[in-house]
Amino acid sequence: MKKTITKIEIAKHLSETIGLSLLDSKRIVNDVFDKVKEGILSEDSVKIADFGTFTVRKKKERIGRNPKTGVTAVISSRKVVSFKPSDKLKK
Length: 91
Prior knowledge:
The chain has 91 residues and is an alpha+beta fold.
């Protein structure tokens, strides 16, 4: 079964590994995720060395079809977050 890794688990690991207080570890984890979120919202590329790159892609409007009914509909243009893993992460 797949396991979900939560921010609190990351903070606990950081706290145990480095010896910081849990509160300081939570702040660091939240600051990192806030910085990633800030980059994505400003549509900048966010590169984390040895992990990967988050980018915002713009998708054009297109015609789609409901697979159950076959009815066509317009899918509006939108922005999506894309992640490309680094070569090191792929290995």
